[in-house]
Amino acid sequence: MAQLPRFRRREVLLSLLATGATLSACQRGSRSDQPSGRDPVPVSGSQSSDKVLLINGAGATFPAPLYLRWFSDYRQVDPKVEINFQPVGSAAGIRQFIDQTVDFAASDVAMTDAEIAEVKRGVVMIPMTSGSIAVGYNLPGIPSGLKLSRPVLVKIFRGQIDQWRDPEILALNPELTIPDLPITVCYRSDGSGTTDTFTRHLAAIDPAWASEVGAGMSLEWPVGIGVKGNEGMSAQMLLSEGVIGYVESVYARELDLSVAALENRRGEFILPSPEASALALSEIELPENLRAFVPDPAGPGAYPIVTYTWILTYRRYSDPAMAAALQAVLRWALTEGQALAEEMGYLPLAATVVNRGLEALQLIQS
Length: 366
Known about the structure:
Elements: H1 6-19, E1 53-59, H2 64-77, E2 81-86, H3 90-99, E3 104-107, H4 113-117, E4 123-137, E5 147-148, H5 150-157, H6 167-172, E6 184-188, H7 193-205, H8 207-212, E7 225-227, H9 229-239, E8 243-248, H10 249-254, E9 258-259, E10 261-263, E11 269-270, H11 274-281, E12 306-314, H12 320-334, H13 337-343, H14 351-361
């Protein structure tokens, strides 16, 4: 597969920042007229070979740039299948999936047992790609590589360190001339799998954060301003000096955001490179339901904040064409599509994870 030029990848991300709302491979139709609690009305099937099957999904912004490319490129594989994806955040995607107003969902957090129990048609959770969460900042004259220790990272997001020239930050970065600016913390205001992954890490490294703030897709932040989506977080860091926030690493890399070198469990300060993130993910052993996390990787050289991201499908579809099409597009994404994932800065799945995903696809029935 030819490599996607960097300017094209950047264009995809800039379009997300510009719209801040709808990301889709093709914008035809919506679910607004579909009643909740029913199978979506099939667009195609045996009625006419000329009709296009429309598949609607919603959810995580973390993998949205990759899904845009996948679903757009898949039209060349099968022009009769059209996938529309709305990047509304993991929590909203799961809610729409439970309410049966979409055909599939995307989430950076696998569904809980309680959520799965709400879905009478059954749930299949398939890890599709993976990546890291970068801590980005906007400090004039300070490129990527600002060192943030585990205690300092927590103190910043608790509001206990609120100036960039705080002695603890200066001590970690004696070679840098850090500007005299207040720290503005940004967090995701929407229910976010990126937030869940980030706060799982904070809870894992700091008992006080775990007991007093917690982890999850939405929570009461001790300090800061809320923004929507990875695209909103990226825009805030591009536009406002003194800001610090957390964002999926592809957004940070392609938009040239400055990102911190975070201290891992070994005491090493690590940037969110694909290599360092892959080392962290190699520690995950997927159980039967393919739901697993690594909130504080232990290995040398591992970047400390990584996650898989899942596509959620039903086990049963009333339309055989829908079930077959979903199996086909996800099989393509798990195999040929993994090369595009790597080119766009995501982490391609290990062969063992791909095989587990392909096995899970067989659970989709009509």
